[in-house]
């Protein structure tokens, strides 16, 4: 059954892109069944009661609420300089079931190009599409935090990890450090890495250094693999 | 130190794109030191003896050979219909250190668009760039296998896994099945998945069904995450 998105399920119609997709692409019609999620864990089954290109009315026949998983993953990433790399990172982390994505401006972030490479409207559209594609019901919250100290002050996840490139005193892999069933925040550095002051400040704010493996990963790859490693820690816990 | 690629280290000069990059982009000159790998595990340190736009001569001062890792990962993937998704899959698996990537044509593969969406020359360039970027010395072998039965007949890795979408009898996660320090082949289905005949044939050829997690992943995401899970199994083994 096709999955649609509507921010508020109390409003019983789709408009805009969702209505167009229903009418023009899928050519659904009166009496057809659809699923709708609000991206906050609620899923409704509904029957179409009126369909045109601009507005699709539905009647909800069943509705369930999903629980957010106990190990909700918050990713905090210093954005790469290429829009498409930030975009695929958002798509892939959404597929994996990330709950929150924060783009954090650090010392080595190019501020001049930030608005172009982190286009929140576009990233939200990509996340929405990936959430529906992978049949999930939580839409990640995506935001920009333009102050590194403000980011550190505001983090409240009980588990906090920071990954950066180092050749000496390589820390233990994230998978071996992360505890299952607890919220996690993982902080990933930019191209050119964090400054030593930033690493010091993050460690003081409770971020534990972690490794992400023996090969040198690009920022966006590191972010996706870190997100994946946290999910795999839950898989291991179930053994 | 900058890393270059030369298929044969017995030939002591770079040509083509590598020479251009050295001369035009990095503006290296006589006496500068570089590193060169043959993508087969050999790494040489060398000094430039002559530099121009078309040819860069070097003198090797030191050379070492890396051992291929015991758990070499062979990924066999039914290609997606979008060239850029196949391309990023190759880039990311190369960053993670995959040894071999085979694009396997299955029943649900679009044969008509195959040569466009799996452009080996372009994919090899992407893998080369990713190998250098992530400072590795093994270039994955990338190929197309246009017969599914021929693929099954030729596989010789001791560990073989197949991932496909199923809602009943969900198998154990790859991470919980894979054995460390042994060669692995993981087979990933296309959009629209394998046919039931193909799954049956693969299982008969020794492929064990595995899960890749609770969310539904796109083909290219599944491939990269499977590759990552095999690497993480080695990390766990070291605990």
Task: Summarize the structure in words.
The structure is a homodimer of 239-residue chains. Chain A folds into 2 domains: 63 residues, Beta Barrel (Ribosomal Protein L25, Chain P), CATH 2.40.240.20; 165 residues, Alpha/beta knot (3-Layer(aba) Sandwich), CATH 3.40.1280.10. Helices cover 34% and strands 25% of the residues of chain A. The first copy, chain A, is built from 8 helices and 11 strands. In chain A, helix 2 links the parallel strand 6 and strand 7. The longest helix of chain A has 19 residues. The radius of gyration of chain A is 20 Å and the shape is elongated. Chain A starts with a strand and ends with a helix. Chains A, B: InterPro entries: Alpha/beta_knot_MTases, PUA-like_sf, RsmE, RsmE_MTase_dom, RsmE_PUA-like, tRNA_m1G_MTases_N. Chains A, B: It is found in: Cytoplasm.
Strand order, sheet with most strands of chain A: 8-7-6-10-9-11
Instruction: Using a beta-carbon cutoff below 8 angstroms, give the protein chain pair with the largest interface and the number of residues from each chain.
Output: A-B, 28 and 28 residues
Give me the oligomer status: homodimer
What is the CATH C-level name of the largest domain in chain A?
Alpha Beta
Poorly predicted sequence stretches spanning 5 or more consecutive residues of chain A: none
- In total, the number of strands of chain A is 11
Number of helices of chain A: 8
Structural class assignment of chain A? alpha/beta
Q: Identify the CATH architecture of the largest domain in chain A.
A: 3-Layer(aba) Sandwich
Count of individual domains of chain A: 2
Q: Rg of chain A to the nearest angstrom?
A: 20 Å
How much beta of chain A, percentage-wise? 25-35%
Largest β-sheet summary of chain A: 6 strands, parallel
Q: H/E order of the elements of chain A?
A: EEHEEEEHEHHEHEHEHEH
Name the CATH superfamily assignment of the largest domain in chain A.
SPOUT methyltransferase, trefoil knot domain
Helix content, binned percent of chain A: 25-40%
User: Under CATH, the topology of the largest domain in chain A is which?
Assistant: Alpha/beta knot
Average per-residue pLDDT of chain A, rounded, comes to 93
- What general outline of chain A do the C-alpha atoms trace? elongated
Enzyme class (chains A, B): transferase
Organism (chains A, B): Arundinibacter roseus
Family (chains A, B): Belongs to the RNA methyltransferase RsmE family.
Domain Ribosomal RNA small subunit methyltransferase E methyltransferase (chains A, B): 69-230
